[in-house]
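Subject: Predicted fold for FMN dependent NADH:quinone oxidoreductase, 203 residues

User T.R. writes:
Posting the sequence so we have a shared reference for the thread.
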Amino acid sequence: MKLLHLDASILGAHSVSRTVSAAIAERFAHEIPDLHVVYRDLAADPLPHLSGAQLAGRAPGAENAPELQAELAASDAALDEFLSADIVVIGAPMYNFTLPTQLKAWIDRVLVAGKTFRYGASGAEGLAGGKRVVVALARGGFYGAETPQASAEHLETYLRAVFGFIGVTDLTFIAADGIAVGPEQREQALSGAVRRAEELKAA
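User M.O. replies:
I've generated the structure tokens; pasting them so everyone works from the same file.
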């Protein structure tokens, strides 16, 4: 069984989402014998953002410069990692009400027509079902459905839409909320999220 572990926070060792995603990955490694883990740090080694040149470079017979060939190869590698994974763990902090640009660049590599979804007579059909996706969220404020800021939450809602679109139904979010409110709230949110991560079951 394969697990793909992604982190997108730019805060390094100070990141709450990295701490929680590591706890999630560690839990699965403990629960599943011979689990093969692939780790990708989207902040330290970011994928280039999707461009017109990249799209044109996919055309049959395209003659691409070495720099573009390298970008296309990186895109293929990211997609292959996702397709081959049984479990995907993502550390996703909220920046300015939404996801980090580095995580969006990765998503643009895995939402590929004919690979993870297709359009038919009935509309879009996800092709990436059967995976388990667990997301560690870190948010500076409180954005639950019952809060005044609920309408500004474009991280969890976006990721639910993205993975639902490609057919993922086994989707879990573990959130650490209010981490910018103060040190006590940060510690409480982090410890609670880590505890929930440590309670995850492999099946």
